[in-house]
Design brief:
The protein is an alpha/beta fold and about 625 residues long. It has three domains: about 30-100, Chitobiase, domain 2 (2-Layer Sandwich), CATH 3.30.379.10; about 105-440, Alpha-Beta Barrel (TIM Barrel), CATH 3.20.20.80; about 470-630, Alpha-glucuronidase, C-terminal domain (Alpha-d-glucuronidase, C-terminal Domain), CATH 3.90.1330.10. Helix content is about 35%, strand content about 10%. Bound molecules: alpha-D-glucopyranuronic acid (GCU).
């Protein structure tokens, strides 16, 4: 009897040990508390003492490059404690040599609002900002409002810091690019200081998104007796003085504050155009304010509908910025999305990277899967980002920003496999030449106890599958309005800007489909450097994955496969759905190797993904086929 209960207990414990909710991310190693670690006492030493199986020596060598580390026979050498920390995590995941980061700036952008919600967040509420129910309602839902009195969750932020440090991320923008001016009020700057203090030992600097019109509603310490201004004109001396005072106020509390991220004159945000000034006027004014403290300005090029209203949307960033190239201060960086439209499952690269030559540039990648199934689809994004680096040489950029997919969900990212995208972003920001495959394998090895070999194949095929079942052969932005999840190819609302309407992008009628962006159309192809300009412009050389992005073709047009446009669509949509079916088969086969909770949770999402992929196929094919019916 006694033996039996012991056995039952053992089984229960074994089961408990295996229960995993994903909160530990890829840092699931059990403490071994065995290693003797010598050298400076720091977080790296603590981590190694807890998790390393072997003894380690830590050494400082000030001649080494910032953030680089060397590993040699149980000795980690680095310039400072942060380098040692990177070395420690590398050693723990099995690296045996050394490494240095490709980019100095490896930054997460959180689109978190002060009321606790997250723009395009699919993993719960913000880990940084908490709100409370307000009095107003929208469509029957209570609207949350800011509540600066709520305490911060220091433990959670420490876990966040550790996860980021383990993959080399060294900066974080704590709030949405659609920024509230309140972010710069004293009460919130104090909170930012608390976050900065927790993140600093992990090598992570804090940055803030700012609202360009902040001087008109928020006082700055020591400025104008606390009065606000009537203008935010960047050339106005009072406005300049306000920003200088604000910078001083921030840096007094956070001496290593990173700087500002700015979305100006885009989608309704205020900016220098409001005063007939240029992006350079706006960016330089802010750059001057943070320069004495070593701060930077990341100025976004995601603009449309302002200065070049009516022009093909994908051309507008180049049109707005090309004439300003070289006119920015040296602490301004132009931050551009990888594609010229908006984080679609597949876009050609953004030609702004070809056109800007005398201004520092950063790429903005989107980790949160706004247009790739959100936290409900298994889509591994590294292949998409690697595709981008195939066109834009990593050396052209000074840094990488990633729109974070992190929220209060227990597993941080909603979908267990979405964690791989956070991981891959960090690893690519460290080394953009790592392969998608190597990163996925690293992540799988650390995330699952016994990763089944086929899971790697699922991850590597998942992005192409998503393109197939959502928007094959160059279709783009045919998403349901605003939610950007399901299909709405017939979407058109007269009151909306036309650039929000799916019909603007595919332009299907009874004869033809596609957006003519060649020299006979919007001439967006001319914004590309050679050879891409010529390749994309000519339908015979344009890769078919971009066909309807660059070309308008009759329904009778035959692709290289010999299939007509609609036949090719049918083939691709179906192929995408079949892929998801195969992912489910593989996931079923992996069941014996995966802990139960995570297996169940991923399984439920895969079932939903299949359902949604099918919906995309039927909705889009029915809609596009209807033109053929009408033309008969
Ligand atoms: C997309 C997204 C918005 C976001 C914008 C941006 O349009 O849907 O929510 O604010 O990009 O990057 O500024």
């Amino acid at each position: 009897m006694k033996k039996l209960s012991l056995l039952i207990l053992a089984i229960v414990f074994a089961g408990m040990a295996k229960a995993e909710d994903g909160h530990q991310l890829w840092l699931r190693q059990a403490p071994v508390n065995k290693a003797v670690v010598t050298g400076p006492e720091c977080i790296a030493a603590q981590e190694l003492r807890t998790y390393s199986k072997n003894d380690v020596t830590l050494k400082l060598d000030p001649t080494m490059e910032q953030d680089a580390y060397r590993i040699n026979n149980g000795v980690i050498t680095a310039k400072n404690e942060i380098g040692l920390l990177y070395g420690a995590y590398a050693l723990l995941r099995g690296e045996t040599t050394g490494s240095k980061p490709f980019y100095k700036l490896r930054i997460l952008n959180h689109w978190d609002n002060l009321n606790g919600t997250i723009e395009r967040g699919y993993a719960g509420l913000s880990i940084f900002w908490k709100g409370k129910p307000g009095e107003r309602k929208f469509r029957g839902h209570t609207i949350f409002v800011e509540d600066p009195d709520q305490p911060i969750d220091a433990n959670l932020i420490k876990e966040y810091a550790r996860a980021n440090a383990s993959i080399g991320i060294n900066g974080t923008v704590l709030n949405n690019v659609n920024a509230s001016p309140k972010m710069l009020s004293a009460v919130y700057i104090n909170k930012v200081k608390q976050y900065a203090d927790i993140l600093r030992p992990y090598g992570i600097k804090v940055y803030l998104s700012i609202n360009f019109a902040s001087p008109m509603s928020i006082p700055a310490k020591g400025f104008n007796k606390g009065k606000v201004l009537k203008t935010a004109d960047p050339l106005n001396p009072q406005v300049k003085a306000w920003w200088k005072a604000k910078a001083k106020e921030i840096y007094a509390l956070i001496p290593d504050f990173g700087g500002f991220l700015v979305k100006a004159n885009s989608e309704g945000q205020p900016g220098p155009f409001d005063y007939h000034r240029t992006h350079a006027d706006g960016a330089n004014m802010l750059a001057d304010a943070v320069k004495p403290f070593g701060g930077i300005i990341m100025w976004r090029s995601f603009v449309y509908g302002a200065a070049h209203k009516g022009e093909d949307r994908v051309k507008q960033a180049v049109s707005e910025f090309v004439g300003l190239d070289g006119k920015f201060r040296d602490n301004v960086i132009l931050q551009s999305k990888n594609g010229p439209l908006d984080f679609q499952p597949r876009e050609p690269y953004a030609p702004i990277f070809d056109n800007i030559k005398h201004t520092k540039q950063m790429a903005e990648l989107q980790i949160t899967q706004e247009y790739l199934g959100q936290s409900r689809h298994l889509v591994y994004l590294a292949p998409m980002w690697r595709e981008f680096f195939g066109f834009v040489a990593p050396e052209k950029l000074v840094g990488i920003a990633g729109v974070a997919n992190i929220g209060l969900d227990t597993n941080w990212c909603g979908h267990h496999f979405s964690q791989a995208n956070w991981y891959a972003f960090g690893r690519l920001a460290w080394n953009p030449t790592l392969t998608s495959e190597a990163i996925a394998q690293e992540w799988l090895d650390q995330t699952f106890e016994k990763p089944d070999g086929q899971l790697l194949s699922v991850m590597l095929r998942s992005r192409e599958a998503c393109v197939d079942y959502m928007m094959p052969i160059g279709l783009h932005h045919i998403f349901a309005f605003d939610e950007h999840y399901g299909p709405e190819p017939n979407g058109f609302i007269a009151q909306y800007p036309i650039e929000w309407c799916p019909v603007y992008y595919h332009k299907a009628n009874n004869d033809s489909i596609g957006f003519n962006r060649t020299h006979t159309g919007s001439n967006a192809t001319a914004q590309y450097r050679e050879p891409y300009c010529t390749i994309y412009d000519d339908i015979n050389t344009c890769p078919e994955r971009y066909l309807l992005w660059f070309h308008r073709v009759p329904w009778t047009y035959r692709l290289k496969s010999g299939r007509t446009v609609i036949e090719e669509m049918e083939y691709r949509y179906t192929r995408g759905v079949n892929e998801v079916e195969d992912f489910i088969r593989i996931w079923n086969e992996a069941k014996p190797y995966i802990d139960d909770q995570r297996w169940q949770e991923v399984d439920a999402r895969l079932q939903h993904q299949l359902h949604n992929a099918n919906l995309w196929r039927t909705t889009c094919l029915d809609y596009f086929k209807s033109f053929q019916e009408k033309s008969k």
